[in-house]
Amino acid sequence: MEQAHDVFDVVVLGGGPAGENVVERVVRGGLTAAVVESELVGGECSYWACVPSKALLRPVDVVAAARRSPGAAEAVTGQLHVGAALARRDEATSNHDDGRQERWLAELPAELVRGHGRITGTRAVVVESDGSQRRLTARHAVVVATGSRAAVPPVPGLAQARPWTSREATSLTAVPRRLVVIGGGVVACEMSHAVRGLGAYEVTMLVRGTGLLERMEPLAGEMVSAAFRDEGVDVRTGTSVTRVSRGADGPVTLTLSDGGPLEADEILVATGRHLNTDDIGLESVGLEPGRPVSVDDSLRADGIDGGWLYAVGDANGRNLLTHMGKYQARVCGDVIAARARREAEDATALRATADARGAPQVVFTDPEVCTVGLTEAKARERGYEVRTVEYEIGKVTGAYLQGEGYRGRAKAVVDEPRRVLIGVTFVGPGVAELLHSATIAVTAEVPLDRLWHAVPAFPTVSEVWLRLLETYGL
Questions:
Q1: What is the DSSP string of 83-133?
Q2: CATH number at residue 122
Q3: Residue 161 is part of which domain span?
């Protein structure tokens, strides 16, 4: 078996968004780097998740927004052009061609090593590709940025029924007439909304729990459920699947927990994810395969002699959101570069802390849901003395001007002794653009008395900030 051996300052396992950000920061810090990737550089988010799903959702939401606006509504007389929407999705994902990302790595410069990488010992990685092996040694650090993959629960017959996961859903080439979605989280909600909007005749959501988006404020799931009912999505809560069957061709049949059958053309499983840490050699350094790599706030792995192993993004289990993985990666890359220069003071000052408070998140349904910080329930669970305020966003003039029948709600969770925000949720059409102001307020712990002087422009939806503070009593 052919075997080559190369030495770099840093070796990164995984060329997704987190891995790319680590590489960029260490190279900026003057180090050499190699990134190991077995699929496409750019990772899950670029080709099978965030980017294609939002490309599919955008035309659906634009049409819905136009139909809410008198004058524009009269111009929307036809059906959404599915072919054009799918072509735009393909353009957004570069037709699953990572040549541009490969050129970007070369220009940094950093070396791309194609294949599957496994840690084999201290600062050592072996990459296997097409029967050959290449040994890589890192002078300073190995970074695990291997992401995660969709989980398929062990329901009898489900795996054999060729179910869709998020990959197949975002890569669809034709809209199924009938789609069943198992799950009630973000992926389940977004893809139910997208496929229904693209023309599916029936979309049925099977939710084991009591509602949608159960990790968020209850108002989020309630408002999305109501909107789904209006657009014809059948949301069934307290329902699970006990068996699935499908022949070589034709529809899929599901047996539900209430005993009833359900037939569909396709089935989407959106019930969680598995970390891609099960086949990367963690056992060679005393860590458990398939588990999150436990790290400190500098993203350095716990319990590794010499402190040479790091983990960012989904691989460390701290926060499974692309933007938080990229944030961790920027911190991690800077820490590695500083430690390599033996600038211990600089390295100590760099810490990833924002992902522990409740990261910003958007659910791109209609209405959109965006949240940052802690929910009321989570804040009380952690022992905060909280006060909450809510406001109907539709009462704001800027929201009324967005279109007829605007329905939205804002909720703020206040740490009452300190009078600072520790959680904010907005639900409504187009509210995602409000999220960064909330993220700044929560992350910077801006006192409410000071936040009151941040005057929102009139007439914008942002005026909801003033109304929330007035409802609080300022």
A1: HHHHHHHHHHTGGG--HHHHHHHHHTT-EEEESEEEEEETTEEEEEETTEE
A2: 3.50.50.60
A3: 151-271
